[in-house]
Write a structure and sequence with these properties.
The protein is of the alpha+beta class. The protein has six helices and 18 strands. The strands form four sheets. Strands 1-18-2-8-5-4 form a six-stranded antiparallel β-sheet, with no helix packed on it. The longest helix is centred in the middle third of the chain and has 15 residues, at about 165-175.
């Protein structure tokens, strides 16, 4: 296959590419620059701040590769540690003994996604043990089902679908069941509450789909990441399906907010059983109230055509 490569001024962070000029149907490789910033301002000095950030993608997730990541924080007196959680997510923890008035975090990340010769995205491999993981099979917490979810699951069960066909059907069903409406739900809104309300944002669509998958014994996980062209972070679902042979299982992405499978414009940051596992920013401290402001931008910085 012959490819035309976009010339780049630098190896990893070249000039930005105008997305409207791209022919997405011919794209076989795309490189993205993700810039994300958080600022917490406090009404008075605080103590013992312990902050958790989940903003850096894994080194590899299916066809997605992280080429570079840089995290900066102010004040510089904080102590930074990195670890991987049980899902393989990159977790950064920063501790500050004291903060006078504000703390800032800024992340710059370059990732690359690509399709194969048949224009297919490579699904993420998962160990077979995740197919039986209780957290991915049992609706609980934010995916705890009520009467509406159970009735919806019963209707889907009577269709007799399984595997990817079932995941696709649930995905389209959730898209039809909710209206996208910011401001009517929050991070603690459950799937049942969102379904009864009939509206919400991507987090709510994702929790509803997860609850239905788990009620129908289809292991599925919450994905936090970015969708090119959207201002905030995005959320979607990965359904886990066993392989035909003895190899690892595979995770397939579905975006119930848009009612479609995920594609090359999606950047995965972290996975878990629900939003609580993958919240981009969280923490605790001793002191008065604080206020968060955040900003995010994803740009195309390189591409290949078929």
């Amino acid at each position: 296959m012959r490819r035309r490569q976009q010339k780049m001024a630098q190896d990893l962070i070249p000039g930005l590419v105008d997305q409207s000029d791209l022919d997405w149907d011919r794209l076989v490789r795309a490189r993205y620059l993700v810039r994300q910033a958080f600022r917490y301002e406090y009404e008075s000095p605080i103590r013992r701040l312990r902050h958790r950030l989940i903003v850096v993608p894994p080194d590899q997730h299916g066809d997605q590769r992280t080429l570079m990541s840089h995290l900066r924080f102010m004040p510089e007196a904080g102590r930074l540690t990195r670890r991987s959680d049980r899902y393989g997510n990159s977790v950064v923890e920063i501790r500050f003994p004291e903060v006078d008035s504000a703390v800032d975090f800024e992340a710059r990340i370059v990732v690359e996604r690509s399709v194969d010769d048949e224009r297919r995205l490579q699904s993420a491999e998962v160990a077979p043990r995740w197919l039986k993981d209780r957290g991915l099979l049992t609706p609980a917490g934010l995916t705890e089902p009520g009467p509406r979810l159970r009735r919806m699951a019963g209707e889907l069960a009577r269709e007799g679908l399984a595997g990817l066909e079932l995941a696709d059907r649930i995905n389209r069903c959730v898209r039809e069941a909710l209206d996208y409406r910011p401001g009517v739900t929050g991070i603690h809104t459950s799937a049942e509450e969102a379904l009864v309300r009939g509206s919400g944002v991507c987090q709510d669509y994702t929790h509803v789909m997860l609850a239905l998958c788990r009620l129908l014994r289809l292991p599925a996980r919450y994905v936090s990441g970015h969708l090119l062209g959207e201002g905030g972070t995005h959320a979607w679902v990965e359904a886990l399906v066993p392989s035909l042979g003895a190899g690892p299982a595979a995770a397939y992405g579905f975006d119930p907010t848009h009612g479609r499978p995920t594609g090359i414009r999606y950047v995965t940051v972290a996975v878990g059983k629900d939003y609580g596992d993958v919240a981009p920013t969280s923490g605790s401290y001793v002191g008065g109230s604080g206020h968060l402001t955040s900003a995010k931008r994803v740009d195309v910085v390189g591409f290949d055509y078929a």
